[in-house]
Amino acid sequence: MIVFTYACFFIASSIGPGEINAQNVNLALDIYPYDHLLFDPKMCGTCKIQKPARSKHCSMCKMCVARSDHHCGWINQCVGHNNHRYFMLFLYSAVQVCWYGTFLIYHIFWSRMRDTPIYRFLVASKQWDRMGPLRIYHVFMYQLQADRSLGALAVFASLAGLVIFIFLLYNVYLIATGVTTNENFKWEDIGEMVQRRELVELQEVDAAGNDVGPPMYEQRDRRHPSHPRYVASLPQQQQRQQQQPGKIASQRNKTQIASDKEPALMKEQLITRMKDITNIYDEGVMRNIMSLLFPPSLQARQSTVGRGRGGQTAMQKRVQKGRRVE
Could you tell me the membrane topology recorded for this protein (predicted)? Predict the structure, then answer.
């Protein structure tokens, strides 16, 4: 079991999180489409490449990480597209070895209690004014005092196992819901915008104001959207901008992207509940787990799928017209 834990730690520490570079950026763009809510097309100011959705540049790892979850000090690198499954395995092994150590120490103390007649001692009871046997709690505390180093190790192992187990369950929940740790913080910001009634959904309508169906980008390939679906509410922005100038404009730039197509008639629908917002990265529990266990390869390969005559994808051409530096 100890060897298994060390092996999991070595694997999680040695396998990279999934670096995005100029050779594989197009593959990453195909794997993770932009939702124009959490992620918009933008350039990484450090790597000088387009940032795919769900990616993040890590200043400690000095790279753009695909589907970045967080930077982990335990394995001294980021947890991302390639090594998230091994990180989860390492957490499981850590919980296992902590609680196994606690179990062994418990049996050591229990064997000492059986060999020592202390649990047969009688003590005066303050409640009934008569002699009674020692409680298991007092016997166990006596064992901790008799061997403080072993007792401290038992307490540490049990608490460490509990903390890591809670962290493991938290990660399992995020995986099942199709959210990374980094995205979870972004969703909290979106939730605050919904509570302040600052988020609206754009719906395409005809000249008479009737709905014509989902936005154009939902009718096409989701990797190449042409219209935003969610934007910050302008009246709320103007009201708050008097209190926090400059901050609101950046929020709207984050949730909206200009289209190179002709403008469509759009109707704004105020979002009042988080469940009205669709997370396009949530494909269901089983698919989310399978995509974690068997992630698509990020190895660059010679391919011209989705490229125009100039060797660029449609997304790249669209972003070049209005690049935003990270």
Answer: Multi-pass membrane protein
